Structures are given as structure tokens and as C-alpha cells.
Amino acid sequence: MAWQGLMAEFLQVPAVTRAYTAACVLTTAAVQLELLSPFQLYFNPHLVFRKFQVWRLVTNFLFFGPLGFSFFFNMLFVYPAPFRYCRMLEEGSFRGRTADFVFMFLFGGVLMTLLGLLGSLFFLGQALTVMLVYVWSRRNPQVRVNFFGLLTFQAPFLPWALMGFSLLLGNSILVDLLGIAVGHIYYFLEDVLPNQPGGKRLLLTPSFL
Predict the structure, then answer these.
(1) CA dihedral defined by 105, 107, 112, 114, rounded to 10 degrees?
(2) Higher model confidence: residue 143 or residue 8?
(3) Residue 101 — very low, low, confident or very high, per pLDDT cuts 50/70/90?
(4) Which InterPro entries match (predicted)?
(5) SS3 of 146, please?
């Protein structure tokens, strides 16, 4: 019964959030079971463009490290409970716009990959989740967020709080900064520029989506 309830809840999650979350969990589980190695997943331009291992363009966004605190911390910001930012984004400003939501993933992924080359970043999943949080926070500026029961602040401060928490854990904040930067670029092009005098919408979802 518990399993059926969990599956019923999972199937209620919007399609894109559900697919991305499932891909992250399955990829990490495959590594944990030694069916895959992180060395088969990380982003390596030489292997992508010289050896044609093009799957690395996707798999580097799906692996968050071995099962443990770091992995589950990231999953809190993708899968519901307690934080549901990816889901709320898909159910909120992207409701009925699944293709646009997928395009945001593609735009963010391509831009992060290009910028990641400059910083020699091998796994960009955390940057992608920070980007999602950033876009949600800018579109919901009046929402007050309770951060682990310790702090309460307006939503736009959330990405910076996450970066500070990563710093406290001893992690590099370069990935968080990349997610914030790409999230801001998307937010500016999609929400700010079209509303400026003479501005226009530059990010047009391809028809094939």
C-alpha cells in the first residue's frame, strides 16, 4: 500500500519534473550499484567531440555524486518535499507550456556547457537546479521562504542562501554561481527584455518541441 501511494504521488508530479527526477535517481542508483562509473558520465569535450561520446552532454546533468547528504540535498530542490521549486515552476508560470519548460532546460544546459568549458566543470546538475530555483524565485518575489527552519526571507534571496550553504559545506561555489548567472540570463531575456520599450522576446521555443 505504501508503495502504491508513493507511485500515485509520483505520477501526479508534472511530466518534465518527473522525468528529470527519475533520470537523476536512476543514474545515481546505477553508479551506486556499480553498473555505471562516474568516469562514463562526466563532461569531457575531448571525448564528446573526438570520440563521439555525446551522451556525456546529458549525463553530466544527471549525476549528483554518491548517495549521501550531498545527493539528497540536491534532490530536495528537484523532487517534492520539502522544497518543490522545479515542480512549482512547472505547475505555475509554465502551466500548459510544457514545450517552453523543456526549452528552458535546453537553453540552460547548452549555456552551462559552454560556460563550464571555461571553468573545467565536469558535473553541472547542481548548476541546473540552482538555475531553476533562481527563475522561480524571481517570478515569485513576494513569497517568503523558510530555509531549513532557521531563516525566513523573500524568495529572491534563496539562490544566494543556497550558495552560502554550499560554502559552509566546503563545496566550491563556482557551480552555484554558474546556475545563478544562467538563471539570470534566462530571466532577463524571457521576463525583462520583452517588457522594455522597444524590447522583444528573443527566446522562441522551436516548433518541433
Answers:
(1) 150
(2) 143
(3) very high
(4) DER1 (IPR007599), Rhomboid-like_sf (IPR035952)
(5) strand
